[in-house]
Amino acid sequence: MQTKAAVLYEQGKERPYTRSRPLVIETVELDDPADGELLVEIAAAGLCHSDLSTIEGIRPRPVPLVMGHEAAGIVRAVGTGVDDVKVDDHVVMVFVMSCGVCAVCSGGRPHLCSVSAKAKAQGELIGGGRRLHLNGRHLNHNVGISCFAEYAVVSRGSVVVVDDDVPLEDAALFGCAVITGVGAVVNTAKVPAGATMAVVGLGGVGLNAMLGGLISDAGRIFAIDVNDNKLDLARELGATDTVNGKDPDCIAKVREATGGGVDYVFEMAGSIEAWETAHAIVGRGGTLTSAGLTPVSAEFSFNTYDLVSEEKAIKGSYMGSSVPQRDVPRFLELYKQGKLPVDKLRSGFLALDDINAGFDRLAEGDVVRQILRISH
Predict the structure, then answer these.
(1) What residues contact 371, with CB distance under 8 A and at least 6 apart?
(2) From residue 351, how far is each of 5, 6, 71, 142, 372 by CA, in Å?
(3) Alpha carbons within 13 A on the beta-carbon side of 261
(4) What pLDDT does 295 receive?
(5) Is 207 helix (H, G, I), strand (E, B) or coil?
(6) Average pLDDT for 296-302
(7) What gap in Å lies between CA 203 and CA 209, rounded to an integer?
(8) This prediction's pTM
């Protein structure tokens, strides 16, 4: 079949993207789903900072590449070997297409699937090969999803079936922003009730981490960003304290307010500057958890003596240490209860043809989650 899709041919083009146009809207060929795969009509897709990093070239990917990794849609065809998903099911896409049988999957950590990691690096689906083509040339899949398109063929392990009473424009955020942000708090760090916590970087993932702190009943939540509008939103959502990261006294203010530092700190910006702030506000016995992916060549140093003498911990969190088939439904239930108001994180809607302008806005730092609505 044919489908419109946003294709990245070259990484590292200069802004503004409305002029350099790194994403080109093409009509591409999409194969039928193979064994263990699904055809999904994309209803809504979020513009994530990870996508921006790919456009910038910070995150190397094989090109040409059909972009997008955070989406929700409706199943339109089911390949052989799939017996637990049917046509017309509503699904949320997740960016690790777990195989279910490798050592880490079998050990209960499907977000770290080794088979998936290899396939993603090659721009393929987990079943091998590519289902996207243009003018006789293969197009690469983005983390097995490629949802900046009208339709996508994905592995069964890349989707979670969800109730059809959840608006798909909200459900889309649960495939990345929610499971990564909330998951980092409740799965990776396991923040206990009453603990102090801080979130450095208030994008879609960071604000979801803050919501995760509210769910966990953290005693005090510090929200830190360089954008005052995001700090206002954090206060509206329930942050007890907000500090602008540009304030030269930012670190001192947080440490003074907490009597020496925060119990649980989350670095969600993916920059060394954010790492420096996050590390500096960790208290004795505290934990720094990072879900912000820095450039692959970036390095951060710390004093190992302090790490031991103050018994601090530094952890990475990928996809919120989530088990998608378990966590997406339970997080959606919290959404239904009003405890995860992800609709308040939306920064507007846009059409596929306006996608480059959307990434300009994301790069400027004034938006949280723009939602791509696909029209046919």
Answers:
(1) 44, 45, 46, 47, 169, 172, 346, 348, 349, 350
(2) 12, 11, 14, 20, 6
(3) 17
(4) 87
(5) helix
(6) 92
(7) 10
(8) 0.96
DSSP designation for 189: I
Q: Which amino acid is at 173?
A: L
- Tell me, letter by letter, the H, E, C secondary structure of 346-368: EEEEECHHHHHHHHHHHHHCCCC
Q: How far apart are CA 153 and CA 5, in angstroms?
A: 12
Segment (H or E) for 117: helix 114-122
Same domain, 240 and 357: no
- Could you tell me if residue 243 is inside a domain? yes
CATH of the domain at 45: 3.90.180.10
Average pLDDT over residues 353-364: 97
In a domain, 334, yes or no: no
Query: Residues near 337 by Cβ (< 8 Å), separated by ≥ 6?
Result: none
Residue written as token pair 């710390």: 302
* Local structure of 302: helix, strand or coil: coil
pLDDT at 373 over 90: yes
Give residue 28's domain range: 2-175+341-373
375: confidence class by pLDDT, cuts 50, 70, 90: low
